[in-house]
Write a structure and sequence with these properties.
- The structure is a single chain.
- It contains six helices and eleven strands.
- With 248 residues, it is α+β, with helices and mostly antiparallel strands.
- It has a single domain, classed as Phosphatase 2c, domain 1, CATH 3.60.40.
- The strands form two sheets. Strands 2, 3, 4, 5, 6 and 9 form a six-stranded antiparallel beta sheet that branches. Strands 1-11-10-7-8 form a five-stranded antiparallel beta sheet, with helices on one face.
- Helix 1 packs antiparallel against helix 2 (67-88) and helix 5 packs across helix 6.
Length: 248
């Protein structure tokens, strides 16, 4: 399966960058990882960078028989690296990050994720969220769906971005994993993103991706759309765009 990919990042309204992301190709396919740090300038950036580094290193060196097991090992080692660093420097206590790890192989896409960084699939103009959101946003939206609060109150609730699970070097509360490989089709676009992408709607994401001719073009257009949304408190936004090119 031939794949093309691009990675882009923007600071938004922040003066520093806490996101990290990387994609690596090998004989077996493509591995991508994205982490969104928390814990301030030093701690968040360090946590996300360590997580990506150790995740990719572990995935590549693993002797596990399948991608799902290799993804799990990568997640464990990423969390362990954060624990080790925090133990060495008490000033970093509380640092952590979200993480999405995605493996693209002959059977399709597999993933593991912790936190609220979304993994999207855009296919034939339609967009779906593949992984679970481990923030409080889904729980608040459930209250709105039941009529307990209004949708306006749900959307404005300041707790929406509070994480229920993250990599902090301790036991991970919630992990989302693919149950089986997701077969990909020509024309599919997979997007790993930090939560800064939520400044634009899913419909806008699908529209932007459909109009782009290359992964680089899609990644740049997504960040431009986020900037154009004009959020005065815009968070860091990072995207990894992976496409399955159409047949010539």
């Amino acid at each position: 399966m031939r794949l093309e990919h691009a990675t882009r990042a923007a600071k938004g309204a922040r003066s520093y960058q806490e996101d990290a992301a990387e994609a690596r190709e090998d004989a077996g396919g493509l591995t991508a990882v994205l982490a969104d740090g928390m814990g301030g300038h030093a701690g968040g950036a360090l946590a996300s960078g360590l997580a990506c580094q150790f995740f990719l290193r572990t995935f590549a060196a693993s002797s596990a028989p399948d991608a799902r097991a290799r993804l799990a090992e990568g997640l464990e080692m990423a969390n362990g690296a954060i624990a080790h660093q925090a133990a060495k420097d008490p000033s970093l206590t509380g640092m952590g990050c979200t993480l999405i790890g995605a493996a693209f192989g002959p059977d399709g896409l597999e993933w593991v994720s912790v936190g609220d960084s979304p993994l999207f699939l855009v296919r034939k103009g339609e967009i779906v969220l593949l992984n679970e959101d481990h923030s409080l946003a889904p729980e608040i939206d459930k209250l709105a769906a039941m009529g307990r609060i209004s949708w306006d109150a749900a959307r404005a609730d300041p707790r929406r971005h509070v994480l229920r699970s993250a990599l902090t070097g301790t036991e991970i509360d919630m992990v989302d994993r693919s149950q089986r490989p997701l077969a990909l089709q020509a024309g599919d676009v997979v997007i790993l993103a930090s939560d800064g992408i939520h400044s634009i709607s899913r419909a806008d994401i699908a529209r932007v991706v459909a109009a782009a001719k290359t992964p680089d073009g899609a990644a740049e257009a997504l960040l431009a759309a986020v900037e154009a949304a004009g959020d005065a408190y815009q968070d860091n936004t990072t995207v990894v765009v992976v496409t399955v090119p159409e047949a010539p």
